[in-house]
């Protein structure tokens, strides 16, 4: 066996080992969380390090307690899930409605200050969230929107819109202008070109942006705490989970069940849209 073949085999096995290591590091914490969520607390105290659940110990009582209404002795996570779904879906849809035409305009139209617009979109992320949290809190309190899910949606849009426009702009720039010119020759107007040519081609990128926006709105905690802390019936899942974490009387198995409920929708969405997400994240990296 010559040297080149040895190096090829060694690199192949090294790549497999690296992938396996990253897989273990990624999957193991979630698996342990899942195991803890389906074990009785008394069995967990006896054997906290077990990574398997014997058939006799398996229970879904923790999930029942988490999802049951607070008036019935549960943690009321069904209400939190509903609130998070409303906020995340609304923020995602509204962000796309604004960012798609905005990104198309920045990528195709020529206007004064076009280059500076790109910098302004990314400049939002130069400041920590806590810096803009207080001004937003004051403005929304005076506008009467603090404590409402609609106000929280507007806050999330202000966070997701700039990067959404930037990501979509980079993708629209990779679509050949000749395709749009051909549609224009056939009599299509600007809106028709966007709907029939640009949007179908930009579907992978739009999916990636939508998933990113949804994850931000679903997992966000700081603004949800500031705007909804005095409205328990409007809390999101992240706020409900913090309530479980701070409760001394709440078993850690119940806390893990709440963590699984918080994580599972994102995992399902990711695997359901993995192909489009991968294409969308790599789109726009190269022009041509």
The mean pLDDT is 82
Instruction: Give the count of helical stretches.
Output: 14
SSE run: HHHHHHHHHHHHHH
Beta-strand share of residues: under 5%
The count of β-strands is 0
**How far is it from the N-terminal to the C-terminal residue, by CA?**
42 Å
- Radius of gyration, in Å, reads 24 Å
Oligomer: single chain
Low-confidence stretches: 284-288
Biggest sheet descriptor: none
Query: What structural class do the secondary elements suggest?
Result: mainly alpha
Helix percent band: over 70%
State the shape: globular
Q: What features would you describe in this structure?
A:
It is a single chain. By secondary structure, the chain is mostly helical. Helix content is 74%, strand content 0%. Helix 4 runs parallel beside helix 7 (149-172), helix 4 (77-108) crosses helix 10 (203-219) and helix 6 (129-142) packs parallel to helix 11 (222-228). The longest helix has 35 residues, at 3-37. The chain is globular, with a radius of gyration of 24 Å.
Could you give the topology of this structure?
Elements: H1 3-37, H2 41-46, H3 61-67, H4 77-108, H5 114-123, H6 129-142, H7 149-172, H8 177-185, H9 190-201, H10 203-219, H11 222-228, H12 237-246, H13 252-272, H14 274-282
Keywords summarizing the entry:
single chain; mainly alpha; 14 helices
Brief account:
The chain is mainly alpha-helical and 288 residues long.
């Amino acid at each position: 066996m010559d040297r080149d073949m040895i190096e090829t085999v060694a690199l192949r096995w090294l790549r497999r080992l690296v992938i396996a290591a990253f897989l273990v590091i990624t999957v193991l914490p979630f698996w342990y969380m899942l195991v803890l969520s389906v074990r009785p607390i008394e069995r967990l105290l006896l054997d906290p390090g077990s990574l398997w659940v014997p058939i006799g110990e398996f229970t879904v009582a923790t999930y029942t307690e988490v999802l049951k209404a607070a008036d019935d002795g549960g943690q009321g996570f069904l209400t939190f899930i509903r609130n998070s779904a409303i906020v995340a879906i609304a923020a995602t849809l509204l962000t796309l409605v604004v960012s798609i035409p905005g990104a198309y305009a920045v990528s195709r139209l020529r206007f004064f200050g076009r280059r500076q617009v790109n910098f302004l979109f990314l400049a939002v992320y130069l400041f920590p969230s806590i810096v803009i949290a207080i001004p937003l809190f004051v403005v929304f309190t005076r506008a009467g929107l603090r404590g409402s899910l609609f106000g929280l949606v507007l806050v999330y849009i202000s966070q997701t819109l700039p990067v959404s426009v930037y990501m979509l702009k980079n993708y629209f720039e990779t679509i050949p202008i000749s395709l749009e010119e051909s549609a224009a020759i056939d009599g299509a107007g600007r809106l028709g070109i966007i709907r029939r040519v640009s949007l179908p081609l930009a579907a992978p990128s739009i999916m990636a942006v939508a998933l990113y926006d949804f994850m931000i709105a679903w997992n966000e905690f700081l603004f949800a705490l500031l705007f909804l802390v005095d409205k328990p019936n409007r809390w999101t899942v992240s706020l409900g989970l913090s309530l479980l974490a701070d409760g001394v009387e709440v078993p850690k198995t119940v806390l893990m069940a709440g963590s699984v409920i918080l994580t599972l929708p994102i995992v399902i969405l990711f695997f359901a849209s993995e192909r489009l997400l991968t294409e969308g994240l790599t789109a726009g990296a190269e022009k041509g």
